[in-house]
Amino acid sequence: MLTQPCILLIEPTHFEVSYSINPWMRPQRWQAAPEQMRQGAQRAFGALRAALEDVGFAIEQGVGIAGQPDMVFPANAAVVLDGRALLARFRYPQRQGEEAHFAALFAALHARGLVDEVGTLPSGCFQEGAGDCIWDASRGHFWAGFGPRSTLQGAQRAGEFFGQEVVPLELATQRCYHLDVCFCPLAGGEILHYPPAFTPAALQVLRQRVPAALRIEASADDLRHFSVNAVNLEDRIVMARATPSLREALRQRGYRVREIDLSPFMLSGGGAYCMTLRLDRSSRPAAGSRIAAA
User: Fold this and answer.
1) Which of 133, 176, 178, 225 is catalytic?
2) Is residue 291 part of a domain?
3) What is the pLDDT of residues 46-73, one digit of tens each?
């Protein structure tokens, strides 16, 4: 099992925006200048990898597959905790072809000792990986989005597999088709989130569990910039270009933000978190959380 922060990336060789399964996807813009877009995606991917390495992550880089452009978003491939991986099942046919390739990739990771166990979900039980099942190290439980893509049953199955509490949050809009688009737990115990993404019942659960002092509310501009879709390690955050107000709010809380131009991937509805999958997450209690003082 991994003992250092480690992230899985998938190279963007075969990335393109060729279909639309969420409101952010813009295949027409991609097709207007495909070669320019491909070059931009390669540059953005290289900048993201460099930023992740700079903040302290080891990188495992997998190979993309022709005809599966959204493999570049491995956050949707699996949920990983304590060396155990639960492979995703995708709702839309456009992404279901990824499942066999990610199964082979995780079998290879298992053979190398980078994961200890690989599990699967039953057919028809949709759960789209860490994009909809996010580990909160400060609180010791998963937050699970359901509605547009993943099902409540999928969230429950993830809890059973890992033997951990899962707190379901129903998503209210297709713009926030995965939880990671609108929700990001931070290392100090804060929750960065976009409130209109959630049903009233989900917001009530969130506000009951997270005190106001630890809730950072994102704006519609933050959502549009995919700034909530961020990667956090201790006091460092890697994200798409942030709005000035969010950048300042995070700075005031002691976070250092590294911004990357991820616009080619935003045309497919993804940002920094979507493009990564943590392989080293542990259920051991996190150090340094400000929850107890809140």
Assistant:
1) 178
2) no
3) 999 999 999 999 999 999 999 999 999 9
Query: What value does the mean pLDDT of the chain take?
Result: 96
Strands 256-260 and 277-278, how do they pair?
A: unpaired
Number of domains in the chain: 1
Catalytic pick among 133, 176, 182, 274: 274
Tally of CB atoms within 10 A around 267? 20
Instruction: Say if 288 falls within a structural domain.
Output: no
Specify whether 274 is catalytic.
yes
Q: What is the CATH number of the domain that holds 76?
A: 3.75.10.10
* pTM score above 0.85: yes
Burial of 26 (0-12, 13-18, 19+ CB in 10 A): middle
Tokens of 43: 């540059």
Q: Provide mean pLDDT across the span 145-151.
A: 98
Longest CA span, the chain: 52
Number of residues that make up the chain: 294
Distance CA 76, CA 96 (A): 11
Structural domain including 274 reads 6-278
CA distance 286 to 3: 14
Task: Tell me if 284 is assigned to some domain.
Answer: no
